[in-house]
Fold:
Amino acid sequence: MVAFGLVNMGLASDEWGTRVVPVDTRSGVPVELPEGAVVAVALTFRVEAAVDGLAFEETRRFDGGVVETTRTVLGGFRAGGPYEVRLPPERLPIGRASHGMYEVTGRFVDGVGHEHAREVHRFRIVPS
Structure:
C-alpha cells in the first residue's frame, strides 16, 4: 500500500480567490459559500511510493441523501511531492431549497480500488 498524505485542501474561485478547507475536520466549522458561486477544489498531497491511476471520488450529501458522486482521475504519480491538482470548476446550486449544510466525503483511490485517504468536511450554502 502507498503511504499517502493530504497536505492541503482548498476551494478556489475567480470571485474570491482560494479558501483553505481545514484538513483536520474535527473543528466542525463549516465553510460558508454563496449560492451560485463557481468553485473548484484544489488538492495538495504527497505519496511515499509510486501510485498509478490515482483518482479522487467525492460524494456530496444534503438533507440526509446523496446529491451527487463524482470521480476525477488524477493520473500516476512518482514518490514525492507535494503535488497540486485543481479539479474542474462547478457552479453551486441556486435557490432557497439549496441553502443549508452539505457534507462531502472525498476519497483518494488507486487504479485497483485501494483507498489511500478519506476526508470529510462540511460547507453551508448561503444566500448571495
